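Schema walk-through. Below, the input block comes first and the output block second. Nothing else is stored per chain. Lengths vary across the set, and this one has 268 residues.
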Amino acid sequence: MSPAPKPPAWLTPNDHVVFDGVTKRFGEHEVLKGIDLRFKRHETAVIIGGSGAGKTTLLRILIGLEKPSSGHVWIDGRDIAPLGELELNKVRKRFGMVFQYAALLDSLNVFENIAFPLREHQKQLTKKQVADKVRQMLATLGIEGKEKHLPGELSGGQRKRVGLARALMLEPELLVYDEPTSGLDPHTSRMVDELIEETRERFQVTSVVISHDMASCFRIAHHAYLLIDGKVAASGTPQELAFGDNRVSVDFIAMSGVAIERLSRIVD
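--- output ---
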């Protein structure tokens, strides 16, 4: 067995997750082409890009569902790319995943959906301990009183909160959001953005958001990355992407349909 790769000297304790020259090929098709990303601890990073840009493949590599064809994925200075399934499972427990449409189990009520990770991964807990943890999380996220409701009886925003509650039950260090505002009206989208930031601050997590929502990106991102054709075409603060001298990012945001004047108001 070859020794584990040593982290590069330029990694800092504040670098929670780093993609270092990551490529991904499926046969002859190269989806990711030398991706470099740095997600800082306790900040929110947003990945934007059009369809086919490579966002989903990047997400799957981040959470260990795909292995890169080359390059490194450093998490707290450890490369997860060469890890076997047993070690990867340990790493995955440090992640919480909030899916695009909450991905709740329709046949289970809210309480059972949120309790599911505890019953799967912390079997030593008593029924009372599970119930106490679930009720505490319900209260923390403002959805107490919904325990017996089925997912179909909830609003879009409430389903997002339940999905987030479930993702937080194992006390992850990183929360990964897949298109969290997709399909929501502007008011609910803003509520979800506020929830993402409140959660980051309250639970001291690092947040990684895959999104196509430019207004959302401007509200929550400390750092944003624009993926085009499997490459990082631009990176920086949302303001730098929209108002800087990188014409690719300026044009992409202009073509997104969100007026620059509106983004200026969000920044202000």
